[in-house]
């Protein structure tokens, strides 16, 4: 069936390459994105990256606070999409909406399903020490990332890769895989593979609790947490009741009580963990910009040598 009309739903930067590639090859008749939100110190209303792209390319933009309302459902029916594409939209679609397009609703998901379902699959793949991840396109159903899979593309996670780096790689990969997927759907050749629920993990929302470093864990686990939370929301710890964000680390050797500063070098602060030790290479003290650990050491060497521990 020829695809004449696509409705796109997405919000963050991750979704923009997918919208761009669709806009180059198909007729995108409407773009749905989250409402403008306050941002930055001034808390001025800011458009989503998807909205910025859509306006630049003269695509109609819809920004419902809740897409499940009868008004939104009626609006979507009026648009008569052949296909709805969803990429990190930020709202759950009702069955009423899922049933509107004759060729289904398709989601671009940032993991190799069914491994990580949920809100933060890129972060948790790194935090958990996975060696590979990727992109999955799938037919959407009423469950949370439980729909039948269409295509997958795999990406290696290197030992020091951060979420920011992986995000940018998957963002491009996702657009390429989406185009292949839509072309196969149009040709009625798209595969359909059910997910094995027993192989699934839930990539839960990140919050203050799961971003705090637990120094009783191994150096490798802490290193994974730090790179998994870089560049947002960033792992943190406290020293002398002050909150420090930790941006970059390296696993090393050493012994001591978990959290104890056991050595200072010209480049790093070495801290004991539950198993091994870890070098802090880039940190962010309270009310300061992030900096090399060496810069902080230069101004606080005596304090750091005073047998103190991170908590």
Automatic annotation (TrEMBL):
Family matches, as NCBIfam families: fmt
Keywords: Protein biosynthesis, Transferase
Keyword Transferase found: yes
Reaction(s) catalysed by this chain's protein: L-methionyl-tRNA(fMet) + (6R)-10-formyltetrahydrofolate = N-formyl-L-methionyl-tRNA(fMet) + (6S)-5,6,7,8-tetrahydrofolate + H(+)
Similarity remark: Belongs to the Fmt family.
All residue ranges annotated as the Formyl transferase N-terminal domain in the record: 5-181
Residue ranges annotated for the Formyl transferase C-terminal domain, each copy included: 207-300
InterPro entries hit by this protein: Fmt (IPR005794), Formyl_trans_C (IPR005793), Formyl_trans_C_sf (IPR037022), Formyl_transf_N (IPR002376), Formyl_transf_N_sf (IPR036477), Formyl_transferase-like_C_sf (IPR011034), GART_AS (IPR001555), Met-tRNA-FMT_C (IPR044135)
Stated name of the protein: Methionyl-tRNA formyltransferase
A Pfam family hit: Formyl_trans_C
Sequence positions that bind (6S)-5,6,7,8-tetrahydrofolate: 111-114
Function: Attaches a formyl group to the free amino group of methionyl-tRNA(fMet). The formyl group appears to play a dual role in the initiator identity of N-formylmethionyl-tRNA by promoting its recognition by IF2 and preventing the misappropriation of this tRNA by the elongation apparatus.
EC number(s) on file: 2.1.2.9
Organism, as annotated: Megamonas funiformis YIT 11815
């Amino acid at each position: 069936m020829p695809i004449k009309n696509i409705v796109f739903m997405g919000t963050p930067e991750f979704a923009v390459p997918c919208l761009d590639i669709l806009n180059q090859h198909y007729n995108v008749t409407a773009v749905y994105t989250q409402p403008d939100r306050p941002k930055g110190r001034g808390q001025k209303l800011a458009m989503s990256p998807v909205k910025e792209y859509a306006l630049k390319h003269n695509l109609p933009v819809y920004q419902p606070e809740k897409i499940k309302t009868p008004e939104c459902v009626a609006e979507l029916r009026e648009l008569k999409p052949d296909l709805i594409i969803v990429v990190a939209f930020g709202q759950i679609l009702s069955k009423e909406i899922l049933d509107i397009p004759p060729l289904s609703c398709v989601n671009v998901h940032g993991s190799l399903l069914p491994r990580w379902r949920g809100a933060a699959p890129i972060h948790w793949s790194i935090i958990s020490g996975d060696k590979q991840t990727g992109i999955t396109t799938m037919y959407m159903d009423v469950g949370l990332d439980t729909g039948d899979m269409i295509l997958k593309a795999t990406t290696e996670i290197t030992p020091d890769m951060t979420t920011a780096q992986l995000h940018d790689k998957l963002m491009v990969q996702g657009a390429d895989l989406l185009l292949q997927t839509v072309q196969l759907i149009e040709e009625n050749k798209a595969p359909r593979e059910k997910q094995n629920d027993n192989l699934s993990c839930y990539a839960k929302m990140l919050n203050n609790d799961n971003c705090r470093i637990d120094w009783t864990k191994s150096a490798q686990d802490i290193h994974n947490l730090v790179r998994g939370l870089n560049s947002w929301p960033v792992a943190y710890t406290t020293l002398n009741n002050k909150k420090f964000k930790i941006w970059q680390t390296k696993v090393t050797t050493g012994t001591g009580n978990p959290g104890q500063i056991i050595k200072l070098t010209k480049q790093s602060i070495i801290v004991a963990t539950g198993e091994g030790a870890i070098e802090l290479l880039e940190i962010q003290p309270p009310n300061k910009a992030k900096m090399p650990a060496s810069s902080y050491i230069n101004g606080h060497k005596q304090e750091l040598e005073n047998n103190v521990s991170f908590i």
